[in-house]
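Dear support,

I submitted the protein below through the web form. The confirmation email said the job was done, but the results page showed an empty box. After a refresh the structure appeared. I'm attaching both so you can tell me whether what I see now is the final result or a partial one.
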Amino acid sequence: MCPEGVDVYFDNVGGEMLDTVLLHLAKRARVLLCGEMSQYDLPDPSQHYGLKNTFRLVLASARMEGFIPPDHVDRYEAIFGELGRLFMTGAVRHRPHVVAGMEQVASALQLLLTGGNQGKLMVQVSDDPWDGVSG
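What the results page shows now:
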């Protein structure tokens, strides 16, 4: 799928997935770390997956750094404008996965942590879209 290697990887999973991608980095690749979903619900912190393939960053002259949205607040308007344009043209699609009812929050979170959701996971707490909105 990436015969010349991975140029840019945005990681929100961590663990074994990130370690596998490190094996396939292209020269001067960039790896952005935003989360570590695979490690969040471990029953014992000693089970945390330790990366084994970090030397691949050296071999590829690659860079790995953290990414948090508040660091880019000055670019929000441009980012959301471009994302809106891409969404409206169909270049980016939204696949919602809705779980109905506040009583389903725990099971929805479990879906999220196990990868059982099939799109953007949301919990619907009301049939009225304006419920709780004041104005």
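Response: this is the final, complete result; the empty box was a page-load delay. The first helix runs from residue 15 to 22.
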